[in-house]
From TrEMBL:
It comes from the Bacteria. Keywords: ATP-binding, Cell cycle, Cell division, Nucleotide-binding. The keyword Manganese does not apply. Residues 2-223 form the ABC transporter domain. GO terms for biological process: cell division. It holds the Pfam family ABC_tran. GO terms for cellular component: plasma membrane. The keyword Nucleotide-binding applies. GO terms for molecular function: ATP binding; ATP hydrolysis activity; transmembrane transporter activity. This is Cell division protein FtsE.
Length: 223
């Protein structure tokens, strides 16, 4: 689905990381962990074509992004749902409209009952008409997850999806992501939260990648 081959990235200063090789096969579940500032968000941005690698190859659904134009990459990105770290809602639009926004942008009409089902799945039917600033942290994260999956993507990339929520809400979000994986979606979660990773490992076969010292390392058993 998504493959990085010997990838390096620099924002202009020194290299943030280099020699990063990873593969997210269909239906796989990965965690990406590592210290703050190691470059997890940056790596996710490379995985969905938001940034271009300074060296190496990024393949999205088998296609080398270096050979693709912006429109091609935009098309491929529709197959990837992203849960951003800061959620990024349009605060003047109700929650339901924020969740449906990717459909609107793509010029597609979603069936109202599908949106209703999605709101029910994330437990936000009651909050559908509220504005994003009125939501709690956990509600915002669930709304962000709903928005990420509304286009039925093949891959879900979640950047700290349980940041700023309590343990019960972390578990609830994790359960939703595991459900998506059981439906066949490829899932990558960037997180600092090692207890979340431990909790997931009893539920799903997850591979843990650690970004540290400018390299990707497979995390050992000492999580
Ligand atoms: N647009 C940018 N321009 C310049 N430097 C940037 C930019 N975005 C991020 N950085 C820097 O790149 C480094 C990695 O940032 P990134 O957000 O990818 O790390 P992270 O591992 O996700 O961190 P955290 O766990 O704290 O969210 C940081 O030092 C950050 O300041």
């Amino acid at each position: 689905m998504i493959e990085l081959d010997n990838v390096a990235y620099s924002y202009g200063g020194g290299e943030l990381f280099s020699s990063v090789t990873l593969s997210l096969p269909p239906g796989s579940f990965h965690f990406l962990t590592g210290p703050s500032g190691a470059g997890k968000t940056t790596l996710l941005k490379l995985c969905y074509g938001e940034l271009t690698a300074t060296a190496g190859q990024v393949r999205l659904f088998g296609q080398d992004t270096r050979s693709l134009g912006r429109d091609d990459i935009a098309q491929l990105r529709r197959r990837i749902g992203v849960v951003h770290q800061d959620c990024q809602f349009l605060d003047h639009l109700p929650v339901a409209e924020n969740i449906a926004l990717p459909l609107t942008v793509a010029g597609r009409d979603g069936a109202p009952e599908d949106l209703e089902d999605l709101l029910g799945w994330v437990g936000l039917r009651r909050q559908a008409g509220q504005l994003p600033p009125e939501l709690s942290g956990g509600e915002r994260q669930r709304a962000a997850l709903a928005r990420a999956v509304i286009m039925s993507p093949d891959v879900i990339l979640a950047d700290e999806p349980t940041g700023n929520v309590d343990w019960d809400m972390s578990q609830r979000l994790l359960t939703l992501l595991i459900e998506l994986n059981r439906m066949g979606k490829t899932v990558l979660i960037a997180t600092h939260d090692l207890s979340l990773i431990r909790a997931a490992k009893s539920e799903v076969e997850a591979r843990v990648l650690r970004l540290k010292d400018r390299r990707i390392q497979a995390a050992g058993a000492n999580l």
